[in-house]
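Posted in: Protein Modeling Q&A

I'm a second-year student putting together a small comparison for a lab meeting, and my supervisor asked me to include a predicted structure for VOC family protein. I've never done this before, so apologies if this is the wrong subforum. The sequence is pasted below exactly as I got it from our records. If anyone can share the structure token output, I'd also love a short note on what stands out.
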Amino acid sequence: MPNASQYPHESELPTTTRAGCVQLNHTAIYASDRHLSAEFIAAVLGLRVGAPFGPFLPVDLNNGVTLDYYEKRDEPIQPQHYAFLVPDEQFDSMIARLEAIGVTYYADPNHTEPGQINRLFGGRGAYFDDPAGHNMEIMTRPYIRP
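Accepted answer (user: helix_wrangler)
Welcome! Here is the predicted structure, written out as tokens:
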């Protein structure tokens, strides 16, 4: 088990690591069919799938973060949750895309309120499963944290 003394002190880190804020650059998302999952989320969010990068198929979220879909066929996919803050003026078209491709959306993360949206924190939101079973969320306002 690592302990705190194993990690470098802040003064030992490169300046680029200390300066500015920490940002998520990319995350790998496991899928049994990377093309299907990447095309699905890109279609729902109104984005495009990028060119393959090694074993990854990227979807650029246009804020410096990339979803890198990675194909994993030999074992079950452990479902994860991914939440997307989306522009309010695009929310209705995303819901319409889900309806057009026959994907049920829900107002809650437990998927007990089908075909409904929530209105948390003065915005709108919905949850839906992607082809790999991940619980995706679109929301127009970020959660207010205490």
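A couple of things worth pointing out for your meeting: The CA atoms of residues 19 and 133 lie 38 Å apart. The beta strands are 26-31, 56-60, 66-71, 81-85, 125-129, 135-139.
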